Amino acid sequence: MKKNIRYFLFLVLIFFSISLKAQKKPFEIGFNTDYGFILKHTKGIGHLIKAHPYGLTASFGKLHLGKQAWQQHYNYPKTQYSLTYFDFLNPIVGKTISASANLFIPITKNKQKRSQIEFHIGTGFVYATNPFDIDKNPQNTVLSSKISYLMRAGLHYQYNITKNLQVKTSLQLTHNSNAARTLPNNGINIVSLSVGTAYLFNAENVVYQKQNPTIFEKKWHLQTVVALSPIETFINQGKKDWVVNWGLYLAKDVNKMLRMSIGTDISWNEGIKRQIEKKFLLPTDTRPDYRRAGLVVGGELFFGKMSLQTQFGYYFYRPFPSRTDQPFYQRYGLRYYVWEGIYTAILLKTHAAIAESVEFSLGYNFTFKKKLRK
Length: 374
Known about the structure:
Layout: H1 2-19, E1 27-38, E2 54-63, H2 69-73, E3 78-87, E4 95-106, E5 115-128, E6 147-160, E7 165-177, E8 188-201, E9 216-231, E10 241-253, E11 258-269, H3 270-279, E12 291-303, E13 306-317, E14 328-339, E15 342-351, E16 354-373
């Protein structure tokens, strides 16, 4: 344990040395302690819930002062980069160290108040010290690989003691999973209460800018995207299976920050093909098609060039039901517009609480109609 904490503190030192280099704009440095419990979201993890995990978090915060219109629209949010150490007090699960990027969106409208309430979401990567191993650690069914993905959301309260010094607390849900890249894939959900403090440097330079209202052009878009995902279908299978997904969506701007879409996507899942081949062994067997097609509705919430994407789909073509899926599916993740209409995305595809894959996507957004409105 002491070795892990020393390693974490070494990472914190590197993290802050990079973050503080040549900083003249306002920024925050904070430290939090976390204490919580593991949600029993499936029967197969009950043997792993033996204690209340605790954690330590070091963070670097960047204030958005209204230089871009979206910053003013979301009441001047904050981007926070965090390193978090968690000890699950269970030798089977071990410890984790995560690196994440988080967006804090103020709910309190008056930024001059001492008390501030914020909603925060974040994503990142997790390193596990003692993941699943079929020979050495077969009981760890929640963390099955050294590197996993992280998703986080919660409510945050901050009280400004002075213009520099803050105390804060958060109630948050953190999800760690590798999204079937390696099995078993139960994942782990941690509900935690966080208490800490932060110091705002260069506070005298905090000046909130206001953008002049502009005419917004509501547009129609045609979006096409290709996504790839590595997965495992069976535990310790060796070579990964691949999922290929192609989507075509018609989208419409609702306002400056929201775009809604409807469309269809088709997937080729080698894992489903493997299941079919295992079930239908005889030469006389008629093997069903392993492809899927679905009807999708979704939305994009924009933060500059980045957007938070959610989709809800229904398979209208699903000849072979997989072991873990359902007729309905969802996607959650981030999309980034690199240049003009070209975008990349990282999305988690799930069937309710069961993750199918993490999709690494490349797409193009065609704009073909404009309508001017104030």
